Amino acid sequence: METKLSKDGHFICLRCHQKCHLRAVIGNGKIKEIKGAACVKGATIPDVMYHPDRILYPMKRIGERGEGKWERISWDQATSEIAQKLNDISERYGSHTLFFITGSGQKQIGWQVETLGKKFFDTPNTHGGRYTCIIPEVMADFATVGELLTYEYNPCYKDTNLMVFWGANPDVGTPAQVRDARAALKRGAKMIVVDPRPIPMAKKADVWLPIRPGTDAALGLAFLHVIIKEELYDKEFTEKYTSGFEKLKEHVREFTPEWAAPITCLRVEDIYKAARLLGNVRPWCLYARCGSVAQQINSAQNARAFACLLAITGNIDVPGGNTLYFRTFTDAMFMHTYPMRPSFRPSPKAEKGFMGAGKYPMMHFGHMCDMPGTVRGMHDGKVRGMWIVANNFVVAEQDSWKVFEGLKKVDLVVVPEIFMTPTAEVADYVLPAAHYAEIDNVAGTFLEPYNYATAYRKIVEPQGECWDDRTMVLEVARKAGREMLWEDLEDFLNFRLKYMGLTFEEACNFPDGKLEFPKPWRRYETSVPSFQTPSGKIELYSSVFKAIGIPPLPTFAENPISPVSTPEIFDEYPFIYMHIRLSPFQHTEGRQIERQRKLRHDPIIEINPVAAGKLGIKEGDWVKLEVPTPKFRGRHIKFRAKFVPEMNERVVGCDHGWWFPEKPAPEHGFADSNINAILSLDSGPYEPTVGNIQCRAFACKVTRLDEK
Amino acid sequence: MKKTIDERMEDVMAMSTEGLIYALPSLFAQISQNGVSRSMEESPGLLYRLLTKLEEADLPKIGADAPEIFDSFMNIFWEGISAKAESVRSYLERFGDFTVNYETFDTSLKAHARVSEGRITGGAGMVRFREQDARWFGDTKEIFALLRGEFNMVKLFTETLFFEGFLGLVQRKASPFNTLVGSLAM
Predict the structure, then answer these.
(1) Taking CA atoms, which of A200, A484, B53, B146 is between 20 and 30 Å from A215?
(2) B103 vs A346: CA distance, rounded Å
(3) Domain match, B98 and B151 both
(4) What is the domain count for chain B?
(5) Residue A105: which pLDDT band, with cuts at 50, 70 and 90?
(6) Contact at 8 Å (CB) between A531 and A145?
(7) Max Cα-Cα span within chain B
(8) Which of A326, A348, A495 sits opposite B137 (nearest CB)?
(9) Shared-domain flag, residues B77 and B127
């Protein structure tokens, strides 16, 4: 449809969060090689694009859901029929029953698709696929400082004197940024690692705290206690730019390291040592991920504790601290994809149909519908249409079988994809999605100094009949007779740059398409208000949390199933489960790519060799993992054992996101080695800000599986 | 003898919702006939008093029984704000262009306001999506509170008040505009 191609082959890799600036070597209209990739996921872009299994044509289901019978159809037929069905559903059940769901594949594109879907089809029900990822942290940080604070684009490694990795493994999660972290270590920066696993950084840390999974807030509270009691906090900053300090001080008075040590299974002296480093070394920065600020019922409170720590030590928006990433873009009036997303809303009438309204008000603010409610809604008729983009929904969401069966009941399921997945297998229409090297885009990149975005034209024409995901929505909207808020993709991209007075074409013509923005430090000194919170200050005591009935000071809550809450279960289920991120893959992607799969052929469970030995498990054995949830009695998932001597004997770490493209359709083995297949959404407790269930740090049983 | 605007405002301030439904159409007609600027001179605090009185009323009932009241009121309100904004023209010239829509959950109220070339204009009805920079919506009571300049960010997190528009714009223009309108309405 579009004809302009990149002149020099530069583009942004959207395969993980890093957004590396890559350059493609082109030959005969195809990408031959990628220059500048920091990891195998970037290097294998051509492997993905030219894979023989790639979906190249629109397909319509002609058999039963999941039967695998498809008919190749034209784009005209696909877009016309989908448009008609979306209109029918909208008219019959209300536009709010249409759900535009994205995941983290084709980063940032899915969120743009959601925005377009939301506006054209007037629905509030979108979901960035991140309620088990970044969103609890988003909620906590927005309430505390007015924007995200401890994600991967916040820590400023280049000028820091102390790095804290808390439930985050930068060598795997942020392969480009880890170079800056290593450079900081070389010049003498100190490091604290809070992680039950001996991740690479743990081995180099000044203090490694192999915490009991799920007790991060207890440790955070103990740190706050020491720093406040020993008056190691930044008094001037705290007094001037925070609110609620006295309440926080009183709140943490009882949370001594002696209190936290038995909860966290850490040594008292180690907690003091780390706390004093945090109090005495300036500046320091913190990177937190799913190990601490997601997937648990206490995630948002963990993030609140981290934000309070950064705040009272004055490490916010200073060189070497945690920067306010989005502020740079909003100040420059650039519509970055992430803050752009919640800035578009449907009509008030549609808004009333938000899935989770009245239950998760902050999610409503962020336009992330309640996912357990959505999955239930797929079964009981509240969800009528689903457009699932860049998301292997069945594998990625908890209670995978329930999701899989639920999709079969939804009136219309549209899945734009690059490969067939268990999710696409049960769709009505599978649409061939262009790869992110085949599209026009402007992306905010996540690398220091965190102040630029890159505009680029597609590098090569899309394979087969693949279309840009956003163009699909635009075309379906046109066929549906919707008011064309944006005429085409170029118009949409121009819209995102309009407040900068630029067009997309002009942005692409900048050297390397790079738009750089001013990024002064300590912006709180001159801006009015200092922080985008209700009080204009960093809210140690959160007025937003208070208003929605959540404890306004950081709190610790023991997991629902833990050695403390349910000790009786631990006789039969003696391990604590956690999952781990894999360097060869981005979540559920890449299992069909040979060069990636060679690096990890089978799903792995990391286990202490002593613990494994007691169970007769040898390295490389297949083992089965079971959970005590009654719904899943008799079911198990399986992994190959990998011995990790430094691993806590009671903790196991398992690969996440596994399915097997080579296994029979429609399931493709999505329940074989995927924890989501044995997690139940049926009952809580649910995390109070975003509604996720406890997805990690729970009891499990591991036994040898007699299987080759 | 026909009552003055100010006298009628005194009557209105004491009325129930039913009374307002009966009285406001003719009051608004009189204000329009008299001229909004002149009416504001004759009845100081006219816009602010009307806003606060309506906030206290059963707005969904007004919306159900006499929805035209909101259109009339928004036309008067923005004409009044426009007149008062002449006094801050140099500020508005620096402020730059800005267009905002308002709509509600519980009534049919829809309105817009625009800052352009140092002037504020506005009235009933919304401008098209591509012409707007921002859109506020919530219950009518919340929108009236916003027009009085009362803005509590907590409302954005509690399903009370909703904002559409680029976040950078909230900080740069939407919030200052709310404050300005609130002060002009006084």
Answers:
(1) A200
(2) 12
(3) yes
(4) 2
(5) low
(6) yes
(7) 54
(8) A348
(9) no
Give, for A193, the enclosing helix (H) or strand (E): strand A190-194
The answer to whether residues B96 and B177 belong to one domain is yes
Q: Do A671 and A637 meet the contact criterion of CB atoms below 8 Å apart?
A: yes
Give the CATH number, domain containing residue B153.
Answer: 3.30.1050.10
Spell out which residues of chain A touch residue B156, defining contact as CB-CB under 8 Å: 365
Strand order in the sheet with A30-35: A10-12, A21-27, A30-35
- Rg over CA atoms, chain B: 16
Q: Which of B153, B169, B179 to mutate to test the interface with A (most CBs of A within 10 A)?
A: B153
Distances (CA, A) of B104 to A148, A220, A353, B59, B142: 30, 42, 15, 11, 9
pLDDT, tens only, A151-179: 999 999 999 999 999 999 999 989 889 99
pTM here is 0.96
Domain carrying residue B70: 5-84
Pairwise CB contact (< 8 Å): A345 & B162? yes
Same domain, B99 and B167: yes
The enclosing H or E element of A417 equals: strand A412-417
| B98 and B156 assigned to the same domain | yes
Contacts with B, A 361-390, CB within 8 Å: 361-362, 364-365
Nearest to B167 among A343, A534, A547 (CB): A343
pLDDT digits (tens, 9 = 90+) for B80-90: 999 999 999 99
Between chains, do B166 and A343 touch, taking CB under 8 Å as contact? yes
Number of neighbouring beta carbons within 10 Å of residue A198: 18
The span from the CA of A184 to the CA of A204, in Å, is: 12
Omega prior to A449 cis, within 30 of 0:
yes
CA-nearest residue to A689 within chain B is: B157
Residue A22 DSSP label:
E
pLDDT at A141: 96
Contact A360, A691 (CB under 8 A): yes
Spatial neighbors of A657 by CB under 8 A, at least 6 apart, are A395, A396, A582, A585, A587, A588, A589, A674
Task: Based on the fold, state whether residues B103 and B67 are members of the same structural domain.
Answer: no
- What integer pLDDT is reported at residue A159 of this predicted model? 96
Residues 6+ apart with CB under 8 A from A188: A161
**B174 and B102 in a common domain:** yes
Mark which residues 108-127 of A lie under 8 Å from B by CB: 119
- Domains, in order of start, for chain A: 59-133+330-432+440-513 (3.40.50.740), 150-323+528-547 (3.40.228.10), 569-704 (2.40.40.20)
Q: Between B130, B157, B169, which is nearest A365 by CB?
A: B157
**What is the spatial distance between Cα A307 and Cα A217, in angstroms, rounded to a whole number?**
12
ipTM of this complex prediction, to 2 decimal places = 0.95
Label residues A309-345 b or e (16+ Cβ within 10 Å = b).
bbbbbbbbbbebbbbbbbbbbbbbbbbbbbbbbbbbb
Q: Which amino acid is at B59?
A: L
The last residue of one of the domains, among B55, B84, B113, is B84
Q: With an 8 Å Cβ cutoff, are B167 and A339 in contact?
A: yes
Backbone angles phi, psi at A504, to 5 degrees: -60, -40
- Hey, are the CB atoms on A351 and B172 less than 8 Å from each other? no
Compute the count of residue pairs across chains A and B with CB atoms less than 8 Å apart. Answer: 77
Residues B101 and B179 in one domain: yes
- CA-to-CA distance for A350 and A361, rounded, in angstroms? 16
Q: Which residues of chain B make contact with A358, given a CB cutoff of 8 A? A: 159
Q: Is A483 on the interface with B (CB under 8 A)?
A: yes
Q: Is the Cβ pair A331, B168 closer than 8 Å?
A: yes
Domain boundary among B84, B109, B133: B84
